[in-house]
Design a protein that fits this description.
By secondary structure, the protein is an alpha/beta fold. It contains 15 helices and 25 strands. Strand 10 (223-226), helix 8 and strand 11 form a beta-alpha-beta unit.
Length: 539
């Protein structure tokens, strides 16, 4: 068999920052610092700092190829530097989720055997409380803090001192694209968190996936606001993709509240912003009460969980902002699908377009999808038939880090089992109807909690809704709903079920009970945590 005659070009992450230094040297990472001021760092300056940081990690901290190096930080320019400096040193950037419980965080630091942990000074008290002085950790490197800070941690090094000791002539150590570059753990809603280990190649390829014209289509003209945390699935790959294409990158630090986000969008003319629905829900209500000019946004990217159709309509109809639904998982690096309208949708009515936009969209190039029944049979793409969604592709993991491969997560023929129940239309638009663990089976019939939630949020008095299963002696399970109302508003069961009736829901699907809750429980990644509600009200 003839082999191709192409040159050996390793797809490693140093190629991304080198490309940015040469082609977009004056584009910037802009950070909102802990004191509220704004810090700007050009890609040329960042490249120099990354080189010195990689050098110092190797020469001063003894980081070896393959070592795991933890980060415990908000979205900021230092965290961006670590995204490149750690792989550049041949090590693995292990982003630690600051919202995990002490037990979970301790578990993943020990399981990963982190050798060094970089800590944002604003989070130092939290880290000291959650995972202090783990046995594998040789150094704690801290930034955004004064040198006279008191800490209970051992072997403390200051970030800027480390950079000052580095050598800008350092030679990148990530010379093989198959070398591991990143490690992200799932939120561990059931059992211990599981690690997804990314390679240089998979992250490089994922960056190209984000940049595709049929995907997020980032380009040099963009200013990207990364609201999704860097500790959550590598901030959906946006930091790498934005640097690669030369977009300005705006990092909000710990200022994730609606008011400062609105101010940053207006001040910097943000064109692409990415976050979970709860963030955009809060921003919408802030903008309704205190209008800002956010007309520069061409794509309000939403992921993590389904964006309620009513909220999409509100953004597009009232605020003139285009909503871009996306879906993925930590195990997918994480991007899998985007909901971009295609040419055959142009002549649809607005209502019909919003119906399409309520789906999670089509698989971007590089991601294959299928839906399967419980017997392992592939199901048709007809937009109606529901089955378990399975995926595969060059940035999808083949097994979990340091865990035996299990058929409960990976099929024998190489597909990842997402745990999502979905339909796929004949033109490839996937719609998640529920998580397998959140489906409600009542009287032998399936009820989609997601469909009810997304509709309830369309009620003018409802801010958020979480629908969950409660045991029932007659029907096996029945749906209940936790509701957070718009401030100053309330509604009873008859009004809310009456609203569901006007939206086409049969009586069998109506929740038997509604519980007013000041704040719905959420996971560490901002998703509704229904297991808490099931545990609290399931009796």
């Amino acid at each position: 068999m003839l082999e191709g005659l192409m040159m050996d070009y390793q797809l490693t992450l140093d190629k991304i920052i080198e490309h940015a230094r040469r082609n977009f040297p004056n584009k910037k990472v802009i950070t909102k610092l802990p004191d509220g001021s704004m810090h700007e760092l050009s890609y040329r300056e960042m490249h120099s700092r990354i080189k010195r940081l990689s050098s110092a990690m190797c020469d001063k901290l003894g980081v070896e190829i393959g070592d795991r190096v933890g980060t415990f930080a908000w979205n900021n320019h230092q965290h961006m530097e670590l995204y490149f400096a750690i792989p550049g040193a041949g090590a693995v950037c292990h982003t630690l989720n600051i919202r995990l419980s002490p037990e979970q965080l301790t578990y993943i630091v020990d399981h990963a055997e982190d050798q060094v942990v970089f800590i944002d000074g604003t989070l130092l008290p939290l880290y000291e409380k959650l995972a202090p002085n783990r046995p594998s950790v040789k150094y704690h490197v801290i930034f955004n803090v004064d040198k006279d800070v008191e800490t209970s941690l051992d072997n403390v090094v200051f970030y800027e001192d480390l950079i000052a000791e580095g050598d800008e002539a350092f030679a990148w150590r990530n010379t093989d694209e198959q070398m591991a570059s990143g490690l992200c753990y799932t939120s561990g809603t059931t059992g211990n968190p599981k690690g997804a280990l990314y390679s240089n190649r998979s992250t490089y390829m994922h960056s190209l996936g984000v940049l595709q014209g049929n995907s997020m289509a980032l380009c040099e003209k963009d200013t990207v606001l990364a609201v999704v945390p860097q500790f959550h699935a590598m901030s959906w790959g946006l930091p790498y993709a934005a640097v690669y294409c030369g977009a300005n990158l705006l990092m909000p630090g710990q200022f994730l509240q609606a008011e400062p986000l609105a101010e940053m969008i207006e001040q910097y003319g943000v064109t692409v912003a990415a976050g979970v629905p709860t963030i955009w829900n809060g921003l919408y209500h802030e903008l309704k009460n205190n209008p800002r000019d956010i007309s520069t946004i061409r794509a309000l990217v939403v992921g993590g969980s389904a964006m309620p159709r009513a909220l999409t309509v509100a953004y597009e109809k009232e605020l003139g902002v285009d909503v871009l639904h996306a879906w993925g998982m930590t195990e997918m690096s994480p991007l899998g699908t985007v909901c971009v309208l295609q040419s055959h949708h142009i002549d649809l009515s607005d209502e019909e377009k919003w119906d399409v936009k309520a789906t999670q969209g089509y698989g971007i190039s590089g991601v294959e999808m299928r839906i399967m029944d419980e017997e392992g049979n592939e199901l048709p793409w007809d937009g109606q038939t529901m089955g378990e969604l399975q995926v595969r592709g060059p940035w999808v993991v083949r097994q979990y880090f340091r865990l035996e491969k299990s058929e409960s997560h990976f099929t024998a023929d190489g597909w990842f089992r997402t745990g999502d129940v979905s339909t796929i239309s004949e033109d490839g638009y996937m719609r998640i109807t529920d998580r397998t663990k959140d489906l409600i089976k009542s009287g032998g019939e399936w009820i989609s909690s997601v469909d009810i939630e997304n509709t309830l949020v369309g009620h003018p008095k409802v801010m958020e809704a979480a629908v969950f299963a409660v045991p029932d002696p007659r029907w096996s399970e029945r749906p209940w709903a936790g509701i957070t109302f718009v401030p100053g508003e309330t509604a009873d069961k008859d009004e809310l079920n009456g609203y569901l009736a006007t939206q086409g829901f049969v009586k069998f699907w109506w929740p038997d009970n509604y519980i007013a809750i000041d704040e719905l429980p959420k996971t560490s990644t901002g998703k509704l945590d229904k297991k808490v509600l099931r545990a609290q009200y399931g009796q």
